[in-house]
Design goal:
The protein is an all-alpha fold and about 220 residues long. The chain has one domain. Helices cover about 75% and strands about 0% of the residues. It contains nine helices and no strands. The chain is elongated and about 60 Å long. This is ABC transporter permease. Keywords: Membrane, Transmembrane, Transmembrane helix.
């Protein structure tokens, strides 16, 4: 069953995934090249100094790439299912309905994690050769909320897609926007360190948010 679902989801959204995977690889490579370029221009010591004491953030341009990736994957994965009512056919399979939905969103999460981890590996592992460990850790703490925000955006977008009432959908968009904004507050490099555990918990909890709107969808509740 899981293998069949995986093949189905991959076939349906593979071009979206491949496109954003290419964007992720480009983002990681660009950050690596930018850091090396800065070192060539000003020397490693000067770059370390402005990273440590002048709040220089060379990662800022990557901020919204995970967010757009999470939203796009959720829309590509679930809008065809909802609009064409195909997901209702899946609910007739001999599997618990909520279990089926969680398996689908788990696959979406696995796709996103593959994209995000590839980007992190290229970006952070690549700069370990030119930056000290403290700056590598600061870089990870700086970008980690953006990737958690991308996964949260995927969960909340999935929740919104299943809601059929325009007024309720608008309310959910506003609530989701407020939650997602927590991951994208303007902050100095490494400033998110105390908040990372809480943001991780929020991300995990949002994994279940679509179950309620999906229940309304499959029961045909329009009020």
């Amino acid at each position: 069953m899981l293998k069949a679902l995986f093949i189905k989801e991959w076939t349906k959204i593979r071009w979206i995934l491949i496109g954003f995977f290419a964007v992720a690889l480009f983002s990681g490579a660009k950050l690596l090249l930018d850091i090396h370029h800065q070192i060539e221009l000003m020397g490693a010591g000067n770059l370390w100094d402005i990273l440590l004491f002048n709040n220089f953030n060379p990662y800022r341009w990557m901020e919204y790439v995970p967010l757009l990736t999470g939203i796009a994957v959720a829309l590509a994965q679930f809008i065809p299912e909802v609009q064409q009512k195909r997901i209702k056919l899946m609910f007739h399979l001999p599997v618990n309905e909520n279990q089926m939905l969680m398996q689908l969103t788990l696959m979406g999460n696995l796709f996103l994690l593959t994209i995000f981890l590839s980007e992190l590996v290229i970006a952070l592992v690549g700069i370990t050769f030119v930056l000290p460990k403290k700056l590598i850790l600061d870089a990870f703490i700086t970008v980690a909320p953006w990737f958690l925000g991308g996964i949260t955006a995927y969960h909340l977008t999935t929740m919104i897609v299943f809601e059929s009432m325009p007024v309720r959908r608008l309310s959910l968009i506003l609530v989701a926007s407020a939650f997602i904004s927590l991951f994208y507050q303007t902050a100095t490099t490494g400033a998110y360190r105390p908040a990372l555990p809480l943001l991780a918990i929020i991300t995990i909890l949002t994994f279940f948010t679509h179950l309620y709107t999906a229940y309304r969808f499959r029961k045909g509740i329009h009020q």
